[in-house]
Write a structure and sequence with these properties.
single chain, about 675 residues, alpha/beta, D-amino Acid Aminotransferase, Chain A, domain 1, OB fold (Dihydrolipoamide Acetyltransferase, E2P), 5 domains, seven-stranded antiparallel beta sheet, five-stranded mixed beta sheet, 24 helices, elongated, disordered C terminus
């Protein structure tokens, strides 16, 4: 099977940027490089590039072998990825250290005397920059006569560290450099060694060895802490180390470091997390499994929670945080989702809390962690009664809602939901509210009794606008069963869930209304709770449903059991150029296919005009092997030029790929 075009492009970009990085001339940020790396990993997780250790530019320096393997680290970009790694570890006590943003260097010692310094190179062989390293701060020329806390032999082996430039040095001496890392990489490889005295080496590892011998991992240290203590006792500057018990403690510590890192003398781009026990076999791997780089991201920031608003949607009240403005992934963020009362309680959030806010992929900004509650922080107040009917709200933890089934808010929201599901864009929420508040429209069937004269008599409406509204509404006179049921705003029942019912044999409204709770509970992904909610909801809105159908204003489209797209499902994301999403979905269904709102196992195609995007839906499609096609590819399927259901790579399939793939 041909490789996805995007994978080939990503591999080329990654190799190019690795070459520029190791030549000391990076063109993109670490965060931008990580996005390329993650996208390729989602497309081709077995790509050889993930097991390679990349060479740096030699610049004519002599070559030397390492005494300690200098492999690459696995990385986690967010707490979810870190948690998945931590769950696989055979320990729950973690050593956590700053991930220094510099260049790796091995200092080699023979019988206690500094003999050479070797750069990372390809992980086994690097460049000998001994003369330059000897001028760097932190390189100890001669060690004490003891190897390890209780040893007596002079030390022969390697000490691994990071070459960094402090922020103060860059500002005072190299203000023209983009950042400390670029400056350090350039200076450490100068032929004449000038500027090396402005660099520091901070160390974190040590192991015995002699040139030309295989790495044995022999260590007299009981654990990582003894190793760090020995390095410090020898006069090396060492990386700060703390102990965290449990994954959540690491996540919380990371949040504190993120908040405090601007006060550090040097740049860091994350944390290194490992077990306390020294595991020589793991250290010998090209990519050790028992340590990970828990990186920072452009998609997270520290801010202050200033206020909580409670958004009303039907019967549900959802907390929304108003925060001090921060930049996340290139956008300014001032609001973040809190989901429900349980989130507030579990994190002990208060007005005035200093928090970590994140924005990843297509997920709206959310508060992920609490940093601290200052002395003047105050509790977050939640509404206790419904603003529309005065009924006392029910706090279930995962949901705060009004239990009154006759609450006018429910009727109002149902009308809005109906208009939204049918995508009647000319009938806006403002107009719906005016009609509802006036008492003229109190149910979905009432919408279809409106006249042009009635609408034209409203302020700022006019006859032309009124006619446009009614034309838009009445143009949606035929709907699918999925749209019809979802439009009546039954809690938890959207089009996707109705699709599952249709697939289980409940393909008409009559069959659905006649279904018992036990029968519904047996449908995939329903269960007792959702079946009960659907059964009660259908009973409640049945009179309104029947009145709407009896009026003749709306009819349910008969199910299509055959057609060229029978059995093929599509999910659409983003905007299409030649048609609106509802039209695209309608065309699919008219040919016997189905439209889904999310990427699930068994999906036929994900349709997007940005196939190369790193969006959540694109990533999920690649994980599941779902073909991603652009609009040209979608039209080819509709027109029969691309056979429906033909296997395709889990990358992007568009007009440019069809000739290469032979489809």
């Amino acid at each position: 099977m041909a490789r996805p075009k995007r994978a080939r492009e990503l591999e080329r970009l990654i190799k190019r940027h690795q070459e520029r990085y190791y030549a000391g001339e990076p063109e993109i940020s670490d965060a931008e490089f990580d996005l390329l790396w993650d996208e390729l990993k989602s497309l081709e997780p077995e790509n050889d590039i993930f097991s390679q250790i990349n060479s740096e530019s030699t610049d004519g320096f002599a070559k030397e072998y390492h005494l300690i393997p200098m492999g690459s680290q696995e990385k986690a970009a967010n707490p979810e990825e870190f948690g998945a790694w931590a769950a696989k570890m055979p320990f729950d006590e973690f050593i956590v250290q700053h991930k220094l943003d510099g260049a790796s260097l091995e200092l080699q010692y023979e019988r206690g005397r500094f003999s050479r310094a070797v750069t990372r190179g390809d992980g086994r062989i690097g460049d000998d920059i001994t003369a330059n390293a000897a001028r760097m701060r932190g390189v100890v020329p001669e060690l004490s006569g003891e190897w390890g806390p209780s040893g007596t032999r002079p030390f022969s082996g390697g000490v691994r560290g990071e070459v960094i430039m402090t922020r103060k040095t860059r500002l005072e001496r190299y203000p023209d450099k983009a950042n400390c890392r670029n400056a350090a990489n350039g200076l450490m490889k100068r032929k004449d060694g000038t500027g090396s005295e402005d660099l520091d080496v901070i160390c974190y590892d040590a192991a015995p060895g002699v040139p030309g011998s295989p790495f044995t991992g022999e260590s007299p240290f009981a654990d990582e802490y003894e190793k760090i203590a020995w390095l410090a006792a020898q006069g090396f500057e060492v990386v700060p180390s703390v102990t965290c018990r449990g994954a959540q403690a690491v996540v919380d510590y990371r949040a504190r470091v993120m908040d405090e890192r601007d006060g550090l003398p040097y740049d860091i781009d994350g944390l290194v997390v490992k077990g306390r026990e020294i595991d020589p076999a793991d250290l010998a791997r090209s990519r050790p499994e028992k340590q990970i780089a828990f990186k920072f991201s452009l998609e997270e920031a520290i801010t202050v929670l200033r206020e909580v608003e409670w958004s009303e949607s039907g019967a549900t009240y959802t907390p929304i945080a108003k925060i001090d403005a921060v930049k996340l992934a290139g956008t300014t963020v001032q609001r973040a989702n809190l989901a429900n009362p349980n989130v507030i309680r579990s994190m002990n959030l208060m007005v005035g809390s200093r928090v970590v806010v994140v924005k990843r992929g297509e997920i709206i900004p959310k508060i992920e962690a609490l940093l601290e509650n200052p002395p003047d922080a105050r509790p977050i107040e939640r509404p206790v009664s419904c603003a529309a009917c005065g009924t006392e709200l029910v706090d279930e933890g995962s949901r705060l809602y009004c239990p009154n089934e006759e609450c006018p808010k429910l009727a109002h929201h149902r009308i809005e939901k109906w208009v939204g599901v049918l995508d009647v864009r000319d009938l806006g929420v403002g107009l719906i509210k005016r009609l509802f508040d006036s008492g003229r429209v109190r149910s979905i069937p009432d919408l279809y009794t409106l006249t042009v004269d009635e609408l034209a008599s409203l302020d700022r409406m006019g006859e032309t606008s009124a006619a446009k509204v009614l034309k838009s509404l009445r143009s949606r006179s035929e709907v699918s069963l999925e749209q019809f049921v979802a439009g009546f705003d039954i809690e938890g029942i959207g089009e996707t869930m109705v699709e599952k019912l249709v697939g289980a044999g409940y393909a008409t409204l009559d069959s659905l209304l006649a279904a018992g709770e036990d029968e519904i509970a047996g449908v995939y992904q329903f269960g007792e709770t959702m079946a009960r909610a659907l059964r009660l909801g259908l009973d409640r809105v049945r009179p309104e449903m029947e009145a709407l159908l009896a009026s003749g204003a709306v009819r349910i489209r008969p199910p299509v059991s055959s057609g060229p797209l029978a059995g093929v499902s599509f999910c659409f994301t983003g905007e299409l150029a030649s048609m609106k999403r509802p039209e695209a979905e309608a065309r699919v269904k008219a040919l016997g296919g189905s439209a889904k709102s999310s990427v699930v196992k068994g999906l036929g195609y994900l349709v997007t005009n940005d196939p190369a995007s790193g969006s959540a839906k694109n990533k999920r499609a690649r994980e599941l092997g779902v073909p991603i096609i652009d609009e040209a590819g979608f039209l080819a399927v509709l027109e029969g030029r691309l056979p429906a259901g033909k296997p395709a790579p889990s990358g992007a399939v568009g007009a440019s790929d069809q000739m290469e793939l032979g489809i």
